[in-house]
Design a protein that fits this description.
The protein is an alpha/beta fold. The chain has one domain (2-207): TIM Barrel, CATH 3.20.20. Helix content is 43%, strand content 15%. It has nine helices and six strands; from the N terminus they run H-H-E-H-E-H-E-H-H-E-H-E-H-H-E. A six-stranded parallel beta sheet has the order 1-2-3-4-5-6. Helix 7 links the parallel strand 4 and strand 5 (147-152). Helix 7 runs parallel beside helix 9 (178-192). The termini are far apart.
């Protein structure tokens, strides 16, 4: 059913080099479904991306490598304590899985692309020190990374929280100024240089 539904948009995928992104929540919680769906989608020539926080068991993560074309891997914080403060869990498992996918690319057990994504959240991940620390991690493995995207905070979900009666600490937070996103982008590029593309979803192509 999923493959049949996805094929309805096949002409868009072909025209814009797109495909199907499996996300969530955390998509790896449904690893058996993800693996089966990805295999069937690939069998009809549709590219598959996995959007993941990286917070999953190592064997579960590795089991998906052979069926995924793109891994969109979140790195929110480099610092363990800051990660725990804002997410409720440490990041050691995430960094371990990051190293696993890097190693898999090196030895050829994962042949797809690795895109790193950092959500830039006001008063949380948006510090220059955090971006620099993540950049240092990525620089070490720059030959295995295909791109890094700084994903600008948006508050479009606030009405969903309001309708569900859930308090959201960012309810009154506005969008980050373009000047701030440009500054963080330049901070990242100072470390990464031209080793792989560093982009920001909050800026136009001309501003990158």
């Amino acid at each position: 059913m999923l493959v049949k539904y996805a094929q309805k948009d096949r002409h868009f995928y072909d025209a814009f080099h797109g495909g199907v992104t499996l996300s969530g929540g955390e998509a790896t919680l449904y690893s058996l479904f993800i693996a089966g769906a990805a295999e069937k989608l690939q069998s009809v020539g549709i590219n598959v991306a996995l959007d993941t926080s990286g917070y999953c068991e190592a064997d579960v993560f590795e089991s998906l490598f052979s069926t995924i074309n793109y891994i969109l891997f979140d790195l929110k914080f480099a610092d363990e304590s800051r990660h725990r403060e804002f997410t409720g869990a440490g990041n050691s498992r995430i960094l371990d899985n990051f190293n696993r996918i890097v190693q898999a690319k090196k030895v050829g057990t994962y042949s797809g692309e690795l895109w790193i994504r950092t959500p830039v959240i006001p008063n949380a991940t948006d510090s220059e020190s955090n971006i620099l620390a993540i950049a240092d991690i990525l620089y070490t493995h720059s030959d295995m990374i295909d791109r890094w995207e700084l994903c600008a905070f948006n508050n479009m979900c606030k009405d969903k929280y309001r309708n569900l009666g859930i308090a959201w600490e960012y309810m009154e937070s506005g969008l980050l100024p373009d000047s701030r996103m440009r500054a963080l982008l330049q901070t990242a590029k100072k470390v990464i240089g031209s080793r792989f593309p560093v982009l920001s979803s909050g800026l136009t192509a001309k501003e990158q």
